[in-house]
Amino acid sequence: xxxxxxxxxxxxxxxxxxxxxxxxxxxxxxxxxxxxxxxxxxxxxxxxxxxxxxxxxxxxxxxxxxxxxxxxxxxxxxxxxxxxxxxxxxxxxxxxxxxxxxxxxxxxxxxxxxxxxxxxxxxxxxxxxxxxxxxxxxxxxxxxxxxxxxxxxxxxxxxxxxxxxxxxxxxxxxxxxxxxxxxxxxxxx
Length: 189
Known about the structure:
The chain is an all-alpha fold. It has six helices and no strands.
């Protein structure tokens, strides 16, 4: 009878320990899912950054008088590359918005060059850039979904207890801040 008194508290402790382990492992899985989703954005951004110099080089021959527009695209791209490696998500989102704006400017100016609009290299680059923009969008959506799942797990009770004890941090969402960035990029050649 005396040993029965120890079995119930021991069982309760064992259930609590198992729950804590399962909750911790779930949080780790969600954090890793979020990191993976971010790396997918990284892959698509790298592809985007590699396409832009080709686009600029193709346009350079036709747009000799539009040096300022071309340089704005190059500067915005370099800022994004630098921030991708060292900056926060919020800083990268702002830089991506600036890059999108400079690309819009390039595409708008390119409308004035009929030979450029008909150039097969430019058409191919336009198609690849459009495809890449779609991939970036899907990767951002997947990242934000993973970040939401992680943040929910961190905030919801009783997982918040384990998250607090294990110092889990909420993931930052990849959000558009400026209203003009919410507009679709219009690519026409």
